[in-house]
Amino acid sequence: MKQILSVFLLLASIFVLGQNGYSQNPDDVVRLVTVEFAPYEFEEQENGVKIIKGIQVDMVKRMCELAGLQYSLKLLPFKRAYEEALSLKQDCIFNFYKNPERLSLFDYTDPLLNNPLVIFVKKGEETKIRFTGKVEELKGFQIGVMLGYTYSPDFDEAIKNNVITVDPVSSHVINFQKLSHKRIDMYICEQNVGLYTAKKIGVAEQIAFLETPFKIQQGYLGIAKNNPKKAIIGKLNAALKQIKDSGEYSSFFDKYLK
What we know:
Elements: H1 2-12, E1 15-16, E2 22-23, E3 29-34, E4 42-46, E5 49-53, H2 55-67, E6 70-75, H3 78-86, E7 92-96, H4 100-103, E8 106-108, E9 113-122, E10 142-146, H5 153-160, E11 165-169, H6 172-180, E12 186-190, H7 191-200, E13 207-209, E14 215-224, H8 232-246, H9 249-257
Helix pairs in contact: 2-8, 2-9
């Protein structure tokens, strides 16, 4: 009986992480949260098990490995992921952009990605719409956006002042379906994410994007300023530098885009 009890206590002491190793103390675990942003972050079934994978997922896992950090990983809708990172239910959120409000609330790693945000339109419209980079040029169009996302201070101000009209939804798939059915006029999305999503749902031949990008945006990993684990930023930055210096960085992209 004592042997059975000992085995039970040993098993009970193991804290199983979301998609990585083990730890006896949950406080030692860096709780990572990300959002659907294929091919950078997405969930897929493998042998009946849901696996979170993608370019940036693999990169962040490798950074944690090099930094000697144990981690758990969850995929949530952006708004909930943001709220949980802010309330310390999760520690680090990625892919995460900077804006003035967030800079007062979060610390950031060095940039993990350069994300070109482009304006997707129904094929044929790309030659008819003039866009030189000014938000006011989007007036009169029904613009699809992601719920909870921020695109630029000028864009946010234009929404607030009713200069432009936006239609927020919770997924890229929904936005591209709406665009293909002309329920919105355009959708602002990261270029690789948009092309990947459109191809996956079978509408790639129906969409195009404007030549001038909306903006080039850098993607980060963020951690709340009041999070007691925020010192890990230094370790993660050192790991990211090691990945870039070694040439390993490009392999994460090659795996999903080639």
